[in-house]
């Protein structure tokens, strides 16, 4: 009876009165990401689940290596990539390792978790704030596993410590009865993005595919905003409830779904600008991008990665302009 009495003026009220079964089963997450406001501080270890830990920090101003002469300062506190420690009865598996100058402190925190040796180092991608400490661990005899594009990117930019064991699409490490999977779903942040999956813990380490901040597209490293979404979609097909980002606090699967939704919205907005023939040279500054892409709606108007995103804003426009 309620539906028959509906008129155009009362449509929204009537829809609200419909049985819950006729409405979406999934709650709609807020479009704006509530990014964590970091405070200056030392490196620390947080427990994620039994046998799995994350090393965050150090938390420093300006950028992940701190303030440098003539370097940008967005007024925020930053941190290098999140390192994960997976404990097994036969040794430890590390995911990423930060900068070379961080290695001794990282290893000190690792020893605080377990006295067992590090047996494998897995890389999520090639960027220095995540894995430029590779050479230090390789010198200790640790095998480094990464996607073949990660190794190629290391060699391309002449960064020491390239993985000495590579894979194409998927690989796994079995140690002490623990399985850890490495999966390359496709391009996104770079062309080597690797999701590290802990099936027994229903947890993933996502590298910079998802971060607590604005997504960054490294076009020189094979990144793509359009493929980025497809890659996150494949990630979401995994059975997980907990997610370690490349930077930031531990997340839930719902957080990843919400991240994907706001990224798609930003892509849609850029596509709309391109279709309207909005001038490319009028979106190249941060103030212009904030207005035209409505970054405040997304929570990305001044996130820890917004300045990095802006270095490729022109190429982002070009990618959308070239898309069918």
Here the CATH topology equals Metallo-beta-lactamase, Chain A
Second rung of CATH, namely the architecture:
4-Layer Sandwich
Give the CATH H-level superfamily. Answer: Ribonuclease Z/Hydroxyacylglutathione hydrolase-like
- Largest sheet descriptor: 7 strands, mixed
Output the strand order for the largest sheet: 1-2-5-6-7-8-9
> pLDDT below 50 for ≥5 consecutive residues: which ranges?
1-27
What does this molecule look like?
- The chain has 324 residues and is an alpha/beta fold.
- The protein has a single domain, classed as Ribonuclease Z/Hydroxyacylglutathione hydrolase-like (Metallo-beta-lactamase, Chain A, 4-Layer Sandwich), CATH 3.60.15.10.
- It contains eleven helices and 15 strands.
- The strands form three sheets. A seven-stranded mixed sheet has the order 1-2-5-6-7-8-9. A six-stranded mixed sheet has the order 10-11-12-13-14-15.
- Helix 7 packs across helix 11.
- The chain is globular and about 60 Å long.
- The N terminus is likely disordered.
């Amino acid at each position: 009876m309620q539906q028959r009495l509906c008129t155009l003026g009362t449509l929204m009220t009537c829809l609200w009165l419909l049985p819950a079964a006729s409405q979406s089963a999934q709650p709609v997450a807020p479009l704006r990401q509530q990014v964590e406001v970091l405070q200056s501080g030392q490196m620390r270890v947080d427990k994620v689940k039994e046998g799995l830990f994350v090393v965050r920090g150090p938390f420093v101003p300006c950028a992940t290596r701190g303030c440098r002469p003539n370097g940008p300062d967005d007024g925020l506190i930053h941190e290098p990539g999140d390192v994960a420690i997976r404990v097994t009865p036969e040794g430890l598996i590390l995911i990423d390792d930060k900068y070379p100058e961080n290695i001794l402190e990282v290893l000190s925190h690792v020893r605080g978790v377990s006295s067992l040796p590090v047996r494998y180092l897995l890389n999520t991608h090639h960027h220095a704030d995540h894995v430029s400490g590779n050479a230090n661990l390789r010198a200790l005899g640790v095998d480094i596993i990464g996607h073949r594009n990660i190794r190629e990117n290391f060699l391309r930019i002449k960064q020491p410590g390239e993985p000495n064991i590579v894979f194409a699409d998927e690989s796994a490490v079995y140690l002490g009865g623990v399985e850890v999977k490495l999966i390359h779903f496709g391009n996104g942040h770079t062309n080597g993005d690797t999701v590290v999956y802990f099936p027994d813990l229903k947890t993933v380490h996502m590298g910079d595919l998802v971060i607590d901040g604005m997504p960054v597209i490294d076009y020189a490293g094979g990144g793509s905003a359009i493929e980025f979404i497809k890659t996150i979609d494949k990630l979401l097909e995994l059975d997980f409830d907990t997610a370690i980002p490349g930077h930031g606090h531990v997340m839930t699967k719902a957080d990843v779904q919400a991240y994907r939704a706001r990224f798609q919205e930003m892509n849609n907005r850029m596509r709309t600008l391109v279709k309207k023939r909005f001038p490319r040279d009028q979106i190249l500054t941060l103030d212009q991008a904030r207005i035209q892409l409505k970054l405040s709606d997304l929570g990305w108007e001044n996130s820890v990665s917004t300045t990095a995103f802006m270095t490729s804003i022109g190429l982002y426009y070009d990618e959308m302009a070239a898309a069918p």
